[in-house]
C-alpha cells in the first residue's frame, strides 16, 4: 500500500483530501478531472450535487441535529491552480499529479506550484462534507473553475443554484486576516485613429526607463510613477515648445502592471534638431524632480535617429499627445470606511501604436460600483474629445464593504475566543470571487480567510501546516456558531 506523504499530519482528514486533490491535474482550463472527482465524492456519500456546463460543482448537505433550521452557509473555494514549474521539472500538468514534499512544518511540491491556493479550501469542505460528527448548518459547498484566469467559473454560475446568503470564502493566504471587501474592475481600452503621411526632418528617440513599476492593485497606493503617463507629460510640454510629428509611442505589457519603460519617436525640422534635444533634456530634468524619492533610478534619455520618412500628421500628433497627457491615472479616491484603502483607481498599463491607431489599455478598479462606472465614463469622455473609441472587457463587480455584517462580527468574536487577540479586518484593492457572488446573490454577507501560504503562484509556494490546522479549528468553530 502506497504511503501517504502527508500521513499523520493535522488536520488529518483535510490534508488527506488535499493530497488526493494534488494527485489530480487541475491547472486552469484543465479542471474536468477534479470536477468529476467532486461529483463522484458526492454520489458515493449520497449527497445532492450539481455540475454545471462549465464544470462548477455545488454539493449540498443538510444541517446536523440541532442546526436543521439554521440559515444555509456557503463554503466556497476554487478548483483550479496556477500551473507553473521549474525548467527541469518532468511534470506534465495535463496528466500528472504533483510530487508533494513536507518537512513537518510546511508542505510544498517538487519543482512546481503547490496549488494551496485554493486546494486547501476544497480539502476543508470535503472533510466537513464526509463527517457525521462536525456540527454545522445546512451547507452549499461551491467549487468554481478557472478563478486564476479571470474568475470565469464564478462569472458563469447560475445564481439559482445557491440559496444561502452567508458565504465563507477560503481563498486568502494570511492567517488572522479577514478580508471583507474587494475592488471590482474592468479592462478598458481607448483606440485613437491617426493619419500617417510623408515626413521630412530629423528623428529623435525618447526613452523613459528605470521606474519601479508594480501591481496596479496591490501597489497603486505607493505612488509609483507610470512611464506611459510620464512620457505623455513630456510630449505635451515639448509640443508647447516647438512643433514635431509623432511616429510612435509605446510602453507597458500588462494592463494590471504599472509600466516601467516607454519609448517614443518624433520627427522635427532639420534646423530645430538642436533645439529639440535641448528642450527634451530640460523637460526631463524638470519631470524627474517631481518623482518620489523611491524612483531614484528613473531616467529620461533621448538620441537622434534616422527619419524613415513617415509620421503622424500634425493634427494626429496633437490628438495623440493630448489624449495621452489628459487621461486620468492612479488613485482617484480613498475609502471613508477603511483607513488607508484605495477605493478607486486606474492604471494606463499598455500603450501601443499599430498602423493608423494609438491604443491605450487601462485596468480600472473600485470597491464602489458607482465610482467604477463614473470613472469609465470619464475615460469615454476623454476619448470622445479627441475622437477615440472605447472598448471594455473582463468587467467584474465590486464586493462592497457592509457596514452591518453579522458574519464579520461573529468571525471577529470567534477569532478572539480562540486566539486571544483581534483579527485584522481589511479590504483589498484587487478582485475576489466574492465580488461576483455579491452581484449575483443580493444581500450576501461574506468573509474571506485562510491559512498562511508563501509565494503562491510560484514554484516556491509553501503551505504552513500548523496554520492550516488552526484555520481548520477556526472554521469549525465558526460553523458551530452560525
Strand order, biggest sheet? 1-2-6-3-7-23
Major beta sheet summary: 6 strands, mixed
Give the CA-CA distance, first to last residue.
40 Å
Provide the CATH architecture of the largest domain.
3-Layer(aba) Sandwich
Rg over alpha carbons: 26 Å
Class per helix and strand makeup:
alpha+beta
Question: What is the name of the CATH topology of the largest domain?
Answer: Aminopeptidase
Number of strands: 25
CATH superfamily of the largest domain: Zn peptidases
Instruction: Tell me the count of domains.
Output: 2
How big a fraction of the residues is strand?
Answer: 25-35%
Give the helix tally: 11
What is the helical fraction, as a range of percent?
A: 25-40%
Overall mean pLDDT stands at 95
3D structure, described in words:
With 482 residues, the protein is α+β, with helices and mostly antiparallel strands. It folds into two domains: 12-183 and 399-481, 3-Layer(aba) Sandwich (Aminopeptidase); 185-396, Alpha-Beta Plaits (2-Layer Sandwich). Helix content is 30%, strand content 28%. It is built from eleven helices and 25 strands. The protein has helices at 12-22, 32-44, 116-130, 152-156, 227-241, 273-289, 314-326, 369-386, 406-419, 433-440, 465-481; strands spanning 48-51, 57-61, 73-78, 100-102, 106-109, 139-144, 166-169, 177-182, 184-193, 196-198, 202-209, 214-215, 245-251, 257-258, 262-268, 299-305, 310-312, 330-334, 342-354, 357-366, 389-396, 424-428, 445-448, 453-454, 462-464. The strands form seven sheets. Strands 1-2-6-3-7-23 form a six-stranded mixed sheet. The chain has a five-stranded antiparallel sheet with strand order 18-19-20-9-21. A four-stranded antiparallel sheet has the order 4-5-25-24. A hairpin with a 7-residue loop joins β18 and β19. α7 (314-326) packs antiparallel against α8 (369-386). The longest helix is centred in the C-terminal third of the chain and has 18 residues, at 369-386. It is elongated.
Amino acid at each position: 500500500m502506497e504511503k501517504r506523504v502527508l500521513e499523520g499530519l493535522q488536520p488529518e482528514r483535510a490534508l488527506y483530501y488535499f493530497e488526493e486533490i494534488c494527485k489530480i491535474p487541475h491547472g486552469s482550463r484543465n479542471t474536468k478531472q477534479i470536477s468529476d472527482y467532486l461529483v463522484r465524492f458526492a454520489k458515493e456519500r449520497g449527497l445532492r450535487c450539481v455540475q454545471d456546463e462549465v464544470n462548477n460543482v455545488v454539493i449540498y448537505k443538510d444541517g446536523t441535529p440541532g442546526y436543521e433550521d439554521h440559515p444555509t452557509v456557503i463554503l466556497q473555494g476554487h478548483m483550479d491552480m496556477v500551473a507553473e514549474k521549474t525548467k527541469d521539472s518532468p511534470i506534465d500538468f495535463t496528466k500528472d499529479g504533483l510530487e508533494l514534499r513536507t518537512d513537518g512544518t510546511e508542505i510544498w511540491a517538487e519543482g512546481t506550484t503547490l496549488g494551496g491556493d485554493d486546494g486547501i479550501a476544497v480539502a476543508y469542505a470535503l472533510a466537513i462534507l464526509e463527517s457525521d460528527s462536525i456540527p454545522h448548518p445546512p451547507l452549499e459547498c461551491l467549487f468554481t473553475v478557472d478563478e486564476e484566469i479571470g474568475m470565469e467559473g464564478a462569472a458563469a454560475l447560475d445564481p439559482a443554484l445557491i440559496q444561502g446568503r452567508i458565504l465563507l470564502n477560503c481563498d486568502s493566504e494570511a492567517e488572522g486576516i479577514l478580508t471583507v471587501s474587494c475592488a471590482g474592475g474592468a479592462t478598458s481600452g481607448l483606440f485613437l485613429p491617426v493619419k500617417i503621411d510623408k515626413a521630412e526632418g530629423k528623428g529623435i528617440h525618447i526613452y523613459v526607463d528605470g521606474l519601479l513599476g508594480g501591481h496596479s492593485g496591490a501597489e497603486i497606493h505607493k505612488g509609483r510613477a507610470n512611464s506611459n503617463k510620464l512620457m505623455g507629460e513630456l510630449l505635451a510640454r515639448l509640443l508647447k515648445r516647438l512643433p514635431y510629428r509623432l511616429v510612435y509611442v509605446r510602453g507597458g505589457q500588462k494592463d494590471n502592471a504599472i509600466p516601467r519603460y516607454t519609448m517614443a519617436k518624433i520627427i522635427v525640422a532639420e534646423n530645430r534638431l538642436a533645439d529639440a534635444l535641448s528642450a527634451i533634456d530640460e523637460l526631463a530634468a524638470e519631470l524627474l524632480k517631481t518623482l518620489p524619492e523611491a524612483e531614484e533610478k528613473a531616467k529620461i534619455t533621448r538620441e537622434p535617429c534616422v527619419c524613415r520618412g513617415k509620421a503622424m500628421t500634425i493634427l494626429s500628433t496633437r490628438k495623440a499627445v493630448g489624449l495621452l497627457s489628459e487621461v486620468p491615472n492612479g488613485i482617484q479616491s480613498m475609502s471613508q470606511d477603511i483607513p488607508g484603502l484605495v477605493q478607486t483607481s486606474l492604471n494606463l498599463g499598455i500603450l501601443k501604436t499599430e498602423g493608423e491607431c494609438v491604443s491605450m489599455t487601462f485596468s480600472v478598479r473600485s470597491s464602489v460600483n458607482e465610482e467604477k462606472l463614473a470613472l469609465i465614463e470619464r475615460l469615454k469622455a476623454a476619448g470622445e474629445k479627441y475622437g477615440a473609441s472605447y472598448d471594455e472587457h473582463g468587467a467584474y463587480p465590486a464586493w462592497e464593504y457592509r457596514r452591518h455584517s453579522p458574519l464579520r462580527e461573529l468571525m471577529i468574536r470567534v477569532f478572539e475566543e480562540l486566539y486571544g487577540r483581534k483579527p485584522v479586518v481589511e479590504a483589498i484593492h484587487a478582485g475576489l470571487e466574492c465580488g461576483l457572488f455579491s452581484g449575483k446573490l443580493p444581500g450576501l454577507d461574506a468573509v474571506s480567510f485562510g491559512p498562511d501560504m508563501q509565494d503562491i503562484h510560484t514554484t516556491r509556494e509553501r503551505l504552513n501546516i500548523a496554520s492550516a490546522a488552526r484555520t481548520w479549528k477556526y472554521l469549525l468553530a465558526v460553523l458551530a456558531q452560525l
